[in-house]
Give the backbone structure.
Amino acid sequence: LGMRADGTADALPLPPERAFVFEAIPGDGNTVLMRFTPAKGYYLYRDRNSFRLDGAAGISAGTPRWPRGVAHRDEHFGDVTVYFDAIDVPLPVRRSVADAAEVTLTATFQGCQAEGICYPPMTRSVRLSLPAGRVETPDDAAAARAAEAASTAVAPALPLAAEPATEPTDASASGHIATATPVEAGVD
């Protein structure tokens, strides 16, 4: 722990679950809304992540629709796009079955302390109760691929109609925001 000229100690890095809060709720049967909240002085990489939906045959994760980020010169990865503030990211749900389902969203992502350490990739899992959704037709699949190709430009953010207008202070009391639990993950 180094000392600054003014005699204060450098800030120790926060534990990963406090440095990067991850939450997810079903937006509808075809979208999961993910929220990433980096602590002040931390940032999240846009392009160093993966998302998986497990637990129900015929239901899988599409390509997340990231909002516009901040161009950042990073000592670890060069010129990257990052987020310093809380962001909401719609994750399309691909379906070959329409039924409601219990699924587990596994999110792997990476971020850094602005003037400090870079965290190894973090993995969090959230249990979600997806309502029934629309089955993807071959036309939908082609449109989704075209939208994904275009989304590397700028994707429009979905309105967060499923979010409560005010965040409950105790998320468990509302019963519908699931906060992720950290999962020990080996480094790839």
